[in-house]
Design goal:
heterodimer, A: 3-methyladenine DNA Glycosylase II, Chain A, domain 3, 3-stranded mixed sheet, 17 strands, B: TIM Barrel
Chain lengths: 443, 311
């Protein structure tokens, strides 16, 4: 829990000396709470109070960077339990487990398929984040498999091994890629913690219960391992969801620094539907990383789309630039369809116009990212707003006809719009899926 | 030092809506499906009572579907051309605990069946299948106001869940539901204030809050899922904090939203996972009743629910 201005005030000298530039210590405390003034402005603050306040300025869940260069990604620094309270910040990293018991060709083939897992949805690129190599065989085979991995993927990597000697050798050939180490537990934490510290690598910490987990974290922090990721082991989904919820609450509600790190979940399901369901459940509930085995495009797209939904800022719906978009080889006779600048509305209409193979213009009206009906209700997608867009975005210059197709859901604005814009209004289908048939029957 | 677990206890409780009436209760249903009744946020079993699992209703129509994706048509085979056979496949082959009947054929653009024909269909269906029913209008307000009262009457005493009442058109439906002993679906457009307002309007007409399920209007995965997801979380938090006017279970129309999407039509697996994840994600934000279309998606979700509730 963040300290309030009054909580901070109690830690200050309360002398109102004005050295900080403010009239009273209370005023200074209020500014500190808002993080608008540095603590150093107070020359008389006690070292204890200073360290308390500095600690409070740190994120409650540590921000951790995985990988290097262009493919690196960040997890952690989350601030809320529910997305409506503000937003979820750093999207869950989605990774794949590859076992060293697979043949070289199979490993290469999977890495090739994983590389293809890139999608574009509503103007955003969706991609996967991590590849983990898991040891099932001897150290020699593990290193061979790791070498294939290093040569065949740019993604951040994770080293999963119970064999400390193999792990050390693996680190020695891969440390430049900043691999995530898996994992520290009760029996090995001293050695693996030292390894993580030596090479400045992120490290997964595993314990079945969170009390045990927090003790291990404290040990590792004392050893100098800094970037930790929490794992509560294999258990039923409902228990896992409970753990993830509890870890987030410990960090946010109790400022429990020992549990103030992102979490990882490793899914072990034979069926791809079950695997995707479980991954989606953990993405919605706070997991910083989820690891799966399935690499089919349909499964990855569904999981990544869910991640995109959950991590969309509720205050800032995805939007596009409002303007006139030509789709295909447009002419001065091409039809004009109007929609909002909410990404989902626009891209849905775009997809259907493209599918129709009929060149057309889409006029995107600035509705501040609201969808058709919401914008209509908020008077941002009414006769006036659409008329303004027709004028501002050069529709009259682009086409020589004066016909405008509006979404079926706002048929009620036809009259007003016709009057204000001077365009003939044609009511289109309610659902975008009806657009291809509609355009084909237009003439 | 032991880590102190953070437990959240809530004063509120979600109302339990019972769908279906058995012989003992004056109906002819083989079973009663209960939804709601929980005193904790979704799936946090250690913080309260979660007496009822989320339930799945299979969506069927009163006519052969006109715009269903090929994959859905294949899943049901020939039966889908005959609404009664379709209903029987859902119950007998796919073990549906309840059915959601949409009176699509009464819509002016989909056959424009008369209210009398609609009522006859409902009576016949009640004879043919014995599971509880959700009954929906076709979405044409004017026609629904003619059709739904007679459908409600045809199912009198069967304690169906009937919908959807909306802010601009709820009185006719509420009156029928009151007269015939059913429950009602209150639909609001992803808006917590309208959901609350509509529940108040309906209860002001004398229908107990315990007989309302909220339809929060969901979007499919990738199509605004997150809006309903967060509205449901907000409503549930308010309800558990003590706001009785929001303490209704949620019904989510997962199938109809999913199968509108482009992604669902790409491949059988992708369609199935799309419907599956839409449903399971909404369970996490509080869905109590999921209306679904694809039998494999329903099977996936059902298996997941069993895993979640295994103790």
């Amino acid at each position: 829990m963040a300290l309030s201005g009054l909580d901070i005030y109690k830690l200050l000298p309360k002398t109102n000396c004005r050295q900080c530039g403010l009239a009273t210590c209370l005023a200074f405390a209020m500014q500190l709470a808002k993080k608008t003034i540095p603590i150093e402005k107070c020359p008389f603050i006690s070292p204890e109070a200073k360290s308390t306040l500095e600690a409070q300025a740190l994120p409650l869940i540590k921000l951790i960077t995985l990988g290097t260069d262009k493919t690196k990604f960040e997890i952690g620094n989350e601030t809320v339990m529910f997305r409506h309270e503000e937003k979820f910040r750093n999207p869950t990293g989605v990774g794949f487990i590859i076992e060293d018991s697979l043949s070289d060709d199979e490993i290469k083939s999977r890495l090739g398929k994983i590389k293809q897992l890139k999608f574009e949805r509503v103007g955003q690129e969706l991609f996967v984040n991590l590849v983990a190599i898991k040891q099932n065989k001897d150290a020699g085979r593990y290193l061979e498999a790791l070498k294939i991995l290093l040569d065949n993927t740019d993604l951040p990597i994770m080293l999963m091994s119970e064999d400390l000697i193999a792990l050390k050798q693996a680190v020695s050939i891969s440390h430049a890629r900043k691999p995530l180490l898996y994992s520290a537990h009760q029996e090995n934490f001293a050695q693996i913690g030292t390894l993580a510290k030596e090479f400045q690598l992120p490290l997964v910490v595993t314990a079945q219960d969170i009390n045990q987990l927090s003790l291990l974290v404290k040990e590792l922090v004392n050893l100098g391992a800094k970037d930790l990721i929490l794992n509560t082991g294999t258990k039923p989904i409902a228990d896992k969801l409970w753990d993830l919820t509890q870890l987030r609450r410990q960090a946010l509600k109790k400022t429990n620094r020992a549990l103030g790190y992102p979490a990882i979940t490793i899914i072990d399901q034979a069926d791809y539907y079950d695997e995707a369901i479980e991954a989606a459940a953990y993405i919605a509930k706070y997991s910083g990383i989820v690891l799966i085995k399935g690499f089919s495009a349909w499964e990855a797209l569904a999981i990544l789309t869910l991640r995109q939904n959950i991590y969309t800022d509720p205050q800032k719906p995805l939007q596009i630039d409002p303007k006139l978009y030509p789709i295909g080889q447009v002419s001065r006779n091409s039809p004009v369809l109007v929609t909002t600048n909410f990404s989902l509305s626009y891209y849905t209409v775009l997809g259907e116009v493209e599918a129709s193979k009929i060149p057309a213009y889409i006029l995107s009206v600035d509705t501040q990212g609201m969808s058709v009906l919401t914008a209509w209700a908020a008077e941002k997608f009414n006769a006036e707003a659409i008329t303004k867009s027709l004028d501002n975005f050069g529709v009259k210059e682009a086409v020589e006809h004066k016909n405008l197709i509006i979404p079926g859901y706002v048929a009620m604005i036809s009259g007003d719009l016709e009057e204000q814009s001077g365009f003939k209004i044609i009511v289109g289908p309610k659902e975008a899926a009806g657009i291809p048939a509609f355009l084909k029957n237009l003439n | 030092m032991e880590t102190q677990i953070v437990l959240e206890k809530w004063p509120g409780v979600i109302s339990t809506v019972s769908i279906g009436a058995t012989k003992a209760e004056g109906g002819t249903r083989s079973n009663v499906v209960k939804i709601g009744g929980q005193t904790a946020m979704p799936l946090l079993f250690r913080e309260g009572v979660i007496p009822n699992k989320p339930k799945i209703a299979f969506e069927i129509w009163d006519i052969a579907p006109l715009d269903f994706d090929e994959e859905l048509l294949c899943a049901y085979g020939k039966a889908i051309r005959d609404p009664f056979a379709w209903a029987e496949v859902c119950v007998n082959d796919y073990k549906a605990e309840l059915l959601c009947l949409k009176m699509q054929g009464t819509h002016p653009d989909f056959g424009n069946k008369t209210p009398q024909d609609a009522a006859k269909f409902v009576s016949t269906l009640l004879h043919k299948v014995k599971v509880p029913l959700v009954i929906l209008g076709s979405g044409d307000d004017f026609k629904d106001n003619l059709v739904m009262p007679v459908c409600s009457e045809a199912a009198k005493g069967e304690r169906c869940l009937i919908g959807c009442a909306v802010q601009e058109n709820y009185k006719t439906l509420v009156a029928s539901v009151l007269a015939d002993g059913h429950n009602i679906i209150a639909e609001s457009p992803i808006d917590i204030n309208i959901a609350k307002q509509l529940n108040i309007l309906i209860s002001d007409m004398g229908l107990a809050l315990e007989r309302i399920a909220i339809n929060p209007t969901i979007g499919a995965l990738g199509y605004g899922l997150e809006y309903a997801y967060s509205i449901m979380e907000r409503a549930r938090l308010a309800a558990l904090s003590g706001d009785k006017t929001l303490a209704s279970p949620f019904i989510c129309f997962v199938g109809q939203e999913t199968w509108k999407t482009k992604e669902a039509k790409v491949s059988p697996q992708q369609g199935i996972i799309w419907e599956t994840l839409t449903a399971t994600s909404l369970i996490q934000s509080g869905a109590d009743l999921l209306v679904m279309r694809h039998p494999q998606a329903a099977r996936n979700v059902s298996k997941h629910i069993e895993a979640l509730f295994r103790e």
